[in-house]
Amino acid sequence: MNCEEAQILLSGLLDGELSLEEKNRVSGHLETCADCRSEYSKLLRLKEVTNEMRFFDVPDKLWAGYWNGIYNKIERGLGWIFLSIGAIILAAFGAFEITRDFFLSDKPPLLMKIGIAAALLGLIIMVVSIIRERLFNRAHDRYEEVEI
Questions:
Q1: What are the pLDDT digits (tens) for 42-51?
Q2: DSSP state of 99
């Protein structure tokens, strides 16, 4: 048995999943190969440590605070989405009202109207996004969690 085959079977040996023949072959290889023996001892130690691990019992008050925080983040996120959509719709309507003569006129070609409408809509979305980001950054200190 070579090292590559033994490495594949080491986990099975740890978990008692190998047949008697495979177990004997791997054990024989471990007696002659220091590298695989070292790898096996590391895996054995890892298994011991993970078997000793226990789940931490989280108090109900901590769980309630966690779920309340999740709810607040979702709620605020939805609020920002609807606020942004509303601002975009109102700004687009205002832009349309200002340029109504241009869009209702037969003189400019349709492609030009579509291009200008797309540019205006993109500009409105960017402005709303920048304002939203500035308001968010003003309310949150980027270095609040940094410990000196």
A1: 999 999 998 8
A2: T
